[in-house]
Amino acid sequence: MSLRLNLKNSELSNEELSTLQEMRQRCARRILLSTSLAASGHPGGSLSALDLLLVTYGLIDHDPSQPLWSGRDRIIMSIGHISPGVYSVLSEFGYFTEEDFLTGFRRAGSGFPGHVERIVPGVEWDTGNLGQGLSTGVGVALAMKMKGLSQKVIVFMGDGEQQKGQISEAMRFARKYDLNNLIVIIDRNHLQICGETACVMPQNIRGLFDNCGWNVSYLEDGHDYNAIFSAFSDAYQGKVADPKGPSVIVARTVMGKGISFMENLAKYHGAPLKPEQIEEAFDELGLENDMSKWEQLRQGPVATDTKVENRVLYPEIVLGEAITYSSDTLTDNRSAFGTALQQLAEANNVQGKNLKIVGVSCDLEGSVKMGGFRKHSPDAFVETGIQEHHAATMSGALSREELATFFSTFGAFAVSEVYNQNRLNDINETNLKVVATHVGLDVGEDGPTHQCIDYLGLLKNLFNFSAFMPADPNQTDRITRYVASKPGNHFVGMGRSKTPVITREDGTPFFAGDYKFQPGKGDWVRKGDDVTIITCGAMTPYVMQAWEILANAGIKAGVLNMASVVPVDRQSVIDAGSAGPVLTVEDHHIDTGLGVIVSLVLAEEGISTTFKRLGVTRYGSSGKPADLYKSQGLAPEGIAEAVKGLLGRC
Ligand SMILES: Cc1ncc(C[n+]2csc(CCOP(=O)(O)OP(=O)(O)O)c2C)c(N)n1
Fold this sequence. Notes:
There is one protein chain. By secondary structure, the protein is of the alpha/beta class. It has 3 domains: 15-297, 3-Layer(aba) Sandwich (Rossmann fold); 330-500, 3-Layer(aba) Sandwich (Rossmann fold); 523-646, Rossmann fold (3-Layer(aba) Sandwich). It is built from 23 helices and 21 strands. The strands form 5 sheets. The chain has a 7-stranded mixed sheet. Helix 2 packs parallel to helix 3 (83-92) and helix 5 packs parallel to helix 6. The longest helix is centred in the first third of the chain and has 25 residues, at 14-38. The radius of gyration is 28 Å and the shape is elongated. Bound molecules: thiamine diphosphate.
């Protein structure tokens, strides 16, 4: 059954009202059945949000026969736990059959997971981590504005969920960017897992949005179809106090609505009914209890053919001509990044017409060298303020809207601060470019809070992120262009300091001419038979100095620059380990970075060799990078000493 409500009408017809009542009855049944069959899940919020969901799907532009139709409005379910309600409504509107849903819900391998995921037709974003959905919706709404599209974005949120701080970040941002294509609906049932929202953590939800300059409307009865219809169609059509601003509808609802013994009880947030309670609930709904039939059907194999395949929408990026910095250049990698990004904007972004590359900054535009990009593409430059959690999630959402999105700030804030946001982005198979400047002890005087030494360890947990650490400005230029042109999640890390150009033995720039960056491919900057030093990023120039010290001492060291840390160049590691001793050197926590990755390759390949790791073994202090490196054995002399120790030549 489907329903198409007309926005132009002032109220719902009697026929529409009775259709909605019938839909509610069928959906309530599915909510109860699905959760009881799975013996887990969230019936209470599903029932409280049900009427809001039904009217919303009745009003928006969408096409259940083409869930990914490009003209569709978008619904982001920030409260991913109300999946039983969402799937019930989607099946009601014809996205899939009731049978597929009820037999598959919460079963391994099925297309109907416990929290909403994009594999379900009609679902836009995998959620479950409360508090991130508004940032996602904001990202999609911003992308629509950037592309001149008129679709609306609707975000469903819980009232307990409002306690998350990231929501305030997103709220402010939506107002700053005048996202009047964004409508938030809050299921205000006054309950959350541990009881009343007012007891768990009191807050003035409407006041918060109001103070932020949103259009706020309140529904005394969030189950009154005409009231929902009127508030939603006003917000949708911009018939609000400030048509330039985003809108929120706070709807007073009842947890467990429609099943008298469930109503207003927090325990039904996440407790399915027992078989005897199902009997009672079905009596109340005036329906026959067919639970046993479904139990039987769930004995069969799970159906998987409803699953939506991930689709990658990624713009064609013109790479432009790579820059070659001459051997005598002394600049920082972040400047090389900024220049490459500006050139990419010049080659790809047409202001006011067609934007392909977006830059997101968190009050550090100058430090991350995005100034040139902003000047060229002011409409594609997004300043979020010091709101990294929102910035990370929003960047992920932008990156799935056919925009090559660069999220750039210091490593401590681009990775460590927002690990969970990047994790949810990764689960959503975003196409994000996280460019972190100021990583490692190379940050220097700002001290340990700013010296990010855990980025590789954190990113290694994310299955779809690569991690690249350019050694010099030339490699930075090429890696920046590479990641801009490729879908998927890519991290690029760089230090703060000016750094010399890496050269060949004849003094010409190494990463120049025909050099092409390839993931999973290391660079043999020097060949040498006695030992191999594997390194990356800010440490490579230090290792080059160590190489000279060693050469003067008659030791022939190979230097393998592993800019592609994830994926690592396994073959080169095998070659290095098979040829002789191996030393890894990194400006990163010694136990979670390059050294560990290399050691695993050696172990897995059964290569027995003398092996040592150098890296950061304790939090750094405030001082010049060279002094900090020296204090942790990472100065050229310390590296050379470590090699001599490995070779027994101390
Ligand atoms: C960041 C985060 N913290 C905790 C949880 C666990 N959790 C799931 S639902 C929920 C309560 C949500 O309350 P509310 O938004 O009012 O939803 P309702 O109970 O009305 O369904 C909590 C704490 C979570 N999913 N995400």
